[in-house]
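Observation: inputs received (chain + 2'-deoxyadenosine-5'-diphosphate).
Thought: call the complex predictor directly.
Action: predict_structure
Action Input:
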Amino acid sequence: MSSERSLVLVKPDGVQRGISGAVISKLESRGLKIAGMKLFQISRDLATRHYGAHEGKPFFEGLVNFITSGPVVAMVVEGPRAVEIVRSTMGATDPLNAQPGTIRGDFGIEIGRNLVHGSDSLESAKHEINLFFSAGEIIDYDRDIDTWIIES
Ligand code: DAT
Ligand code: MG
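Observation:
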């Protein structure tokens, strides 16, 4: 099955709470491969572009303030159906509705502090990866273990 790439952010609450490692571990142990990763301070301009689809909504200002309030861990994660696999690993947007075992379901309480971002479609993944990463920051490499994670 052909691979997809998704943009994942450990949001400032996750970095401040020291659970970046737990988030990375959850994604890695699911079988996803990290193709890019950096600690990154999001500017207001980038935040506005990244969350452009939500401009005008009542929570937009708070969302931009929050996502720029401290560094994030930005990642490009790769694997078959990576966009949906990441979304199911994160859990529902509101941690109240996120299943236990998901990142938001295990670590979150409120929608405005929901710890992680993951692209919601292949199209937005491409757009978001371009916003956060230059081509040279994304590494194409093989893992021997993939034959035990991916059938073909
Ligand atoms: P997701 O992050 O699951 O893709 P989204 O794209 O709909 O969710 O929203 C982006 C972020 O905005 C979300 O992670 C938290 C915040 N948000 C969404 N809906 C909200 C609401 N009704 N009240 C407060 N914050 C909200
Ligand atoms: Mg979204």
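Thought: report the result.
Final Answer: Residues 54, 59, 63, 93, 111-112, 114, 117, 120 surround 2'-deoxyadenosine-5'-diphosphate (ligand 1) (CB under 6 Å). The first strand starts at residue 3 and ends at 10.
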